[in-house]
Amino acid sequence: MDTIAIPSIEEKGINTVRILxxxxxxxxxxxxxxxxxxxxxxxxxLWKETLNYNPKNPHWANRDRFILSCGxxxxxxxxxxxxxxxxxTLDDLKNFRQLNSKTAGHPEYGLCPGIDVTTGPLGQGFANxxxxxxxxxxxxxxxxKPGFDIFxxxxxxxxxxxxxxxxxxxxxxxxAGHLELGNIIYLYDDNHISIEGATDITxxxxxxxxxxxxxxxxxxxxxxxDVHAIELAITxxxxxxxxxxxxxxxxxxxxxxxxxxxxxxxxxAPLGADEVKLVKEFFGFDPNKSFDIPTDVAEYYRKVGARxxxxxxxxxxxxxxxxxQFPELAEEYETAVKGExxxxxxxxxxxxxxxxxxxxxxxxxxxxxxxxxAKIPYLIGGAADLAPSTETNLKNFDSxxxxxxxxxxxxxxxxxxxxxxxxxxxxxxxxxxxxxATFLMFSEYMRPPIRLASIMKISPxxxxxxxxxxxxxxxxxxQPVEQLASLRSIPRITVxxxxxxxxxxxxWKVAVTHKxxxxxxxxTRQGLPILDQDKYGKASxxxxxxxxxxxxxxxxDLILIATGSEVALIMEAQAKxxxxxxxxxxxxxxxxxLFEKQDAAYKESVFPKAYRKRLAVEMASPMxxxxxxxxxxxxxxxxxxxxxxxxEDLYKHFGFTVDNVVKxxxxxx
Length: 669
Fold this sequence. Notes:
Number of strands: 20
Distance between the termini: 78 Å
Strand content: 5-15%
CATH class of the largest domain: Alpha Beta
Strand order of the largest sheet: 10-9-11-12-14-13
Oligomer: single chain
């Protein structure tokens, strides 16, 4: 590819970034130089011509969002963040991929300023952007008024061949096309290279036609060095308000490397010291200097970045005028942005009596969710085609569609993976609290976004129903066994499995107030008895993670522990054991993670070290329970997959009966 004739300072700036990319990876002896070198012209157009941003305030509300979906090319992003004035120093560039550096091996939200979302696992950034776009459309619909275009930002991303191969990209692209998210502008780096070599060994589809079939606006650029073509394509994309845009850009990986351009060898490894020198010579730089940023290039980009202060200042003035005319809406938005809830948000939550008929916790969840939605206007969400089954339909609100952006019910379709990833984008948008629902078994499809939400310390609410073999006849494929253990193994996650309707209400209270990590709410399909709060422990203790629900008649010989539907089972077992003279304490333990946050004194009050005879009961994998049952206790769980049969038959078959709990308890004693 030939270098296009462009103004010298711009060409010099673009080439400076190419060399920085090579130097950063070479010094770290680790990373991906080739893509960043090829895409420096795209980065230049974005940060110089296109993006609305303010390096002095990376979280400005109406900034354009930028996502590097091919996160392995992060040296490109770090270089432009440094040059345009973000708090990313030259030393940060030199410490690429080193311990405690801002410049991690893939972009990490909260670690480096200017990073809007953590990327790396391919396809995630692409799908996150769909969530960002949904949130922007919803905010604009709720808050924009004539003369006050408060939220009009776009979602930009750079994607790779690898992103296009990932299944989550297909799910998210289909959803974005259906919803006509015209605020999305993605640039696809079509370089025909992946780790194993040329992509034609696995990938020869017509990506342009595929995206046109999804309902996207597609443009093609023959040469990534043609900055004028890139500028024009982005201008055209911004003019296309109805369809999301994909700009397919043909690039030469490691452009400027005499021996490694166009090869897989430049994708995921340093070029080598000698080759880096040749690159510098190719672009007219001193081959013996590293991390060399010419003074005129530094000044040029700093002036570019400084424009953002004026851009934000104009928006701040606009918002101040808006606030004067629409004080209630402005106050609502500011409350949401601060992570607070409206006054009286929990005033009308449902309560349940022990005399009430059995209630499935999914049903109680639906009642609590609708009560909260009536008070919290920024609580929005939906399900992966399962709202009737998960009880997550907001009954008094419309659906979010291409025609109605004010709707608060989201129909994600049977796209669990994209739903989770989109929820992360929504959660990263101040002013929105998102929830998304499916069956617990299908959390398997959502593991990457759940994990990334935990890494980013953001708090989407994942709702999972049909939580055990208690769902019955659907059988092995739909009955979760290992999912609770695997979810609990994720750092910084909070899993809550309430025992009855009142605990369910308390679980939702925790979910909407929780910060610093995702919340997973796990509910039953089958009806459960309402625990008598006047006679036993109060459901409000759920916030402590575990609590004494029913105390022993004297110092306990045994502690029974359970979550969810199994709590009612151990309550019955307690009655039988006490009748036989075995003093038994019952502990409801809806959340390990909430319990671990309590102080040592509280933990000791629930699980005294002196009382080590314990039995945990949960219709799930026993993995991890030994922490609470101790070496003198036991756990009644699922050692195999389930079976297809009515729930009552399954309980008997797998031993989740009062008689078997009593038998296992006596065996411990």
